[in-house]
Design brief:
The structure holds 2 protein chains of 2 kinds. Helix content of chain A is about 80%, strand content about 0%. By secondary structure, chain A is mostly helical. Chain A has a domain of about 170 residues: MetI-like (MetI-like fold, Orthogonal Bundle). The longest helix of chain A has about 35 residues. Chain A is globular and about 75 Å long. The two termini of chain A are about 40 Å apart. By secondary structure, chain B is an all-alpha fold. Helices cover about 75% and strands about 0% of the residues of chain B. The relative contact order of chain B is 0.11. The N terminus of chain B is likely disordered.
Amino acid sequence: MRGHARHITAVCGHVLLLAFGATALFPLLLVLVNSFKDSSAVTANPLSLPTGLNFENFRQAWSYGHFQRGFINSFILTFTAVVVVLVCSSLAGYVLAGKKIRIWPAVMIYFMVSMTVPIQLFLFPLYFGFSQLHLLGNVAAVGVVIAAINMPLAVFLMRTFFLKVPKEVEEAALVDGANTFQLLRSVILPVVSPGLVTVATIVGLMAWNEFLITSTFLQGDSSMTATLGYLSMNGTFSTNQGVMMAGAVILVGPIIVIFVMLQRYFVEGFVSGSVKG
Amino acid sequence: MPATEAAASPPGRIAVRRRDTGATAGRRRARPRRRSTLTYYLLVAPAVLLSALVVVVPGVLTAVAAFTDWDGIGLKARWIGFANFSSILRDPVFTTALGNNVRWMLLFLTIPVAIGLLTALLLLTRPRSRTLYQVIFLVPYVLAPITNAILWLNIVYNPLSGVVGYANHHGLHLGEPLSGLHTAIYAVAAVDIWHFWGFLTVIYLAALRQTPVEQVEAALVEGANGWQLFRYVYLPGIKSTLQLMWVMIIIFSFLAFDYVWLMTQGGPAHATEMLSTYAYSFAFASFQFGKAAAVGLIMSLFGLISSFLYTWLSRKDLNA
């Protein structure tokens, strides 16, 4: 009897998990299915399967969404943000993990507080400053802003990775006469490189997906990121759903592939920022 | 500098130095360290300065601008005291927005937390399918708000070509969720919750997995049932993670912007207005940067309270 009851509970659990998984993926499957249909077929029944593999929607979406320029801008934005964050957060994380400066608790508290500062508290004067410096539309400069916003989280993540470096390794190198930069480059960085990948993944994702800062600071066609180009396409193209869905596939597809390949680092990045032991 | 010294000295000398007596080695080690304190400050400086330049300096300017009639275009601004605040507090749209933020908070404190906890508990006993489910649940979370919002607008909520429109034409009357004064906020929240809950599953699962195996086994030997196992073994272990997530949800609820702006821009008739969209409209639709700054300052007050809570809950990290 007891075994029977346990069996039923297990089946219920699986059904629930499948149902939640289906909820997560259902809208995305609709996107994929409808990206191959023409607009009248989408309107007739968005739930029907396509009759064939028609790539005309993708061709149109690629040119009307200005995806080529969009992807280049998104790459510049993400690359700038990731490089700036990696350099700054690994240096700061190293100092904070080793308690190398006397004011390290103050720096920690500063980053903890600045992590929760809402964007609306600094957005408006920052926008004014950008317009005065003629930086509106400068993709790399906006990448630096996104780096600064993600800095606290990155510093905390890097700090926990530096805490894993054994003290003896560092001290032996110091005794051997290595200076700080030699120590960082050839002793510590190899140990914390998984941390660097994790931070790069998380910050890269944040930069690629960012909406509030990019849509405010990157006005004008030439500076639009891939997602902003798609947003502008929604205004002019919302009557042709097939093309809109093809655009969504172009944007979503690569992200899902990268996410599945690097999922270990994504999960580690999400978790290490949020789980308190 | 130690670097040149090391480069100039043959390897043998270093090996000899290691065999020095403790006292001499200590003195030699202390010297370069004291010298490089400045270096350590320089190493931490880029992160702090960049964050200060982007977050703190404009943040302080916002606090000042909230008491002026700054239009955000020129440098001209008049000091008008609390006029921005009193006009905002008298504006019924502000009350609507604040109410919507509170409603948003209550929705997010319950629905995604319940789904996240339930799915995490289910995955805890399924080590083989765990990774696959985690990846599936996280897919909406890693996609950009722009693509998520547009795909829901077009293929689900669209009254002509979406699933909702299809249902309306075939006897299942769902109306137009995004245009209804009472349904719009739930329709937007549904999309944000759809994209968010998988994150909580992953966080809760990671916390649950930290529970010591011996405790679980001991409880099972004692004959604990599923509920008792959760209540007395798992729950105490994940309590701090649950608290931290609640604090973060409260913070995010008062800052919610992306999905609301993308799907309704605060409409229809302010039915989905949030503090963030209210402030954004002041700044970039009517060029009242002073008022926008005042709303931003009020939002930050909620953030500040939560941020004290957050710092207090994370104080363990400082002692790590």
